[in-house]
């Protein structure tokens, strides 16, 4: 299967230059309905963007594409200014931030949301909410599909009064930053939920956890973070900033970087997709494509596998040689998860631009979930990858849809689905995988590396032991 890639440089009427790519594939597959994360129907490997006028062709040469806005934002206060800033923050009106607010502080401070320099003021919020992008001073646009905002209640608003600056504190009272030149505006929760998720149905995890209990006001401003974010959970060495990731790609001599995000354990189908992507990039002429395996590290819903377990499982995948450690960088993406489907997947892709990736792998129903009250997907499974192919501000990122991987019962391994012998393939959903582990059953040989599978089995055994302990405690009472 051959694959070609071209960049098209176009000049718009406004004189702004935009980079648009065209990647075509000479083979089309018709595929069945598939499981949530990795078994999505595809018609081609990479999407074709609509071509504009005045087109010339150039070849992609560098993986480290320019970050949005031209340079990475770094909002951490320099060490030589830290003492004075801490003193100043202590004298300001205080805004308390939640655990998930802290995750957004982390995202902002390292430049994942570049060129955004703090929690959104009202104009930025409205542009993000209604247009999924921000307009820069030169008239160009960058993608920003999720509002990054900080909510406060009536009492906090009253306490701030007319102060232009506020101090940000954790629930334990520790100072974490300053918000400058603040603007306070109404938090219309219903509008925010409806436009972000496309529904106001009850049971949306992020809404229930974050938005519903939040205050009636939003406060925006320029953010200064007093020190680098650390979690002290044994995983901080995985939390590489966009700047650190770019340095690592440079160190490895990467001439292409392809990013793969997931919030589930890596099975051999995922590995097949990642390894096949690298093979195709090599066939296209790249000398050293590097994989950014980038699991989401912020808020997830309770039934998702916890981050520490996922990271241990990912480590086993590399130890067992399923993925090559020499051409794979494993790092944690600190963003919270919204489960907002086509709206959220734009944010996931945009953030990887700032980390230096010029290819982004997208699957079936990215950032999606089951409908909270009905037995169906909340979003059309194909809309995420279609939206990415046309989203404003993502033109310089090459979108790589998944090929469908399933368990080949004849070959006894994960393989790309062959419609000519569909009966030979077994689709193992995330739910089925978790049930295997929960019940102590083994999946078919070749589904996941043994070391990685044992990590999951151990995790679910610990859950069952804890449940039994709690039940015994209740009975004893």
Main features:
477 residues, 5-stranded mixed β-sheet, single chain, 18 strands, alpha/beta
Quickly describe the structure.
The protein is α/β, with parallel strands linked by helices and 477 residues long. The chain has 13 helices and 18 strands.
What can you tell me about this protein's structure?
The radius of gyration is 23 Å and the shape is globular. With 477 residues, it is α/β, with parallel strands linked by helices. The chain starts with a strand and ends with a helix. It has 13 helices and 18 strands. The protein has helices at 82-91, 99-110, 122-131, 154-160, 189-197, 205-211, 242-251, 268-283, 307-319, 341-354, 383-390, 430-439, 450-476, and strands at 3-11, 17-25, 56-58, 94-96, 133-135, 141-143, 151-152, 166-169, 175-186, 217-225, 256-260, 289-293, 328-330, 359-362, 398-401, 405-408, 413-416, 425-426. Belongs to the sulfate adenylyltransferase family. Residues 237-459 form the Sulphate adenylyltransferase catalytic domain. Pfam families: ATP-sulfurylase, PUA_2.
Q: Helix fraction?
A: 25-40%
Strand content of the residues, in percent? 15-25%
Pairing-aware structural class of the strands and helices? alpha/beta
Mean pLDDT: 86
Pathway: Sulfur metabolism; hydrogen sulfide biosynthesis; sulfite from sulfate: step 1/3
GO molecular function: adenylylsulfate kinase activity; ATP binding; sulfate adenylyltransferase (ATP) activity
Subcellular location: Plastid, Chloroplast
EC number: 2.7.7.4
């Amino acid at each position: 299967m051959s694959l070609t890639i071209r960049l098209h440089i176009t000049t718009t009427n406004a004189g702004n230059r935009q980079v648009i790519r065209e990647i075509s594939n000479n083979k089309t597959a018709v595929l069945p309905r598939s499981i949530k994360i990795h078994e999505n129907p595809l018609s081609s490997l990479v999407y074709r963007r609509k071509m504009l006028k005045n087109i010339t062709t150039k070849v992609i040469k560098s993986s480290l594409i320019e970050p949005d806005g031209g340079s990475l934002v770094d909002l951490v206060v320099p060490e030589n200014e830290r003492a004075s800033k801490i003193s100043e923050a202590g004298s300001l009106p205080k805004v308390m931030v939640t655990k998930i607010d802290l995750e957004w502080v982390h995202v902002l401070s390292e430049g994942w949301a570049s060129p955004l320099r703090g929690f959104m003021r009202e104009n930025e919020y409205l542009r993000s909410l209604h247009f999924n992008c921000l307009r820069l001073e030169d008239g160009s646009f960058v993608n920003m599909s999720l509002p990054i905002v900080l909510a406060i209640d009536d009492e906090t608003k009253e306490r701030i009064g007319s102060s232009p600056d506020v101090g940000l504190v954790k629930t334990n009272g520790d100072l974490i930053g300053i918000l400058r030149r603040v603007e306070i505006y109404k938090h219309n929760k219903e509008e925010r939920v409806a436009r972000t998720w496309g529904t106001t149905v009850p049971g949306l995890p992020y809404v229930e956890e974050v938005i519903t209990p939040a205050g009636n006001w939003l406060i925006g401003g320029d953010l200064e973070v007093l020190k680098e974010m650390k979690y002290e959970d044994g995983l901080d060495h995985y939390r590489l900033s966009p700047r650190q990731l770019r340095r690592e790609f440079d160190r490895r001599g990467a001439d292409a970087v392809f990013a793969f995000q997931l919030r589930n354990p890596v099975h051999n189908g995922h590995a097949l997709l990642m390894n096949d992507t690298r093979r195709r990039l090599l066939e296209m002429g790249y000398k050293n494509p590097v994989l950014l395996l980038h699991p989401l590290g912020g808020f997830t819903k309770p039934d998702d596998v916890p981050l520490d377990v996922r990271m241990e499982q990912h480590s086993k995948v590399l130890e067992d040689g399923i993925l090559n450690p020499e051409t794979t960088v494993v790092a944690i993406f600190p963003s919270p998860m919204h489960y907002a489907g086509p709206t959220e997947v734009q944010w996931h892709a945009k953030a990887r631009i700032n980390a230096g990736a010029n290819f982004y792998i997208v699957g079936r129903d990215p950032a999606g979930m089951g409908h909270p009250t009905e037995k169906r997907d909340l979003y059309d499974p194909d809309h995420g990858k279609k939206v990415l192919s046309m989203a404003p501000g993502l033109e310089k990122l090459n979108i790589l849809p998944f090929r469908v991987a399933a368990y080949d019962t004849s070959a006894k391994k994960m393989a790309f689905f062959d419609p000519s012998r569909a009966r030979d393939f077994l689709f193992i959903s995330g739910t089925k995988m978790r049930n295997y582990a929960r019940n102590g059953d083994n999946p078919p040989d070749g589904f996941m590396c043994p070391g990685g599978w044992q990590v999951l089995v151990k995790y679910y055994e610990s859950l069952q032991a804890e449940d039994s302990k709690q039940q015994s405690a209740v009975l004893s009472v």
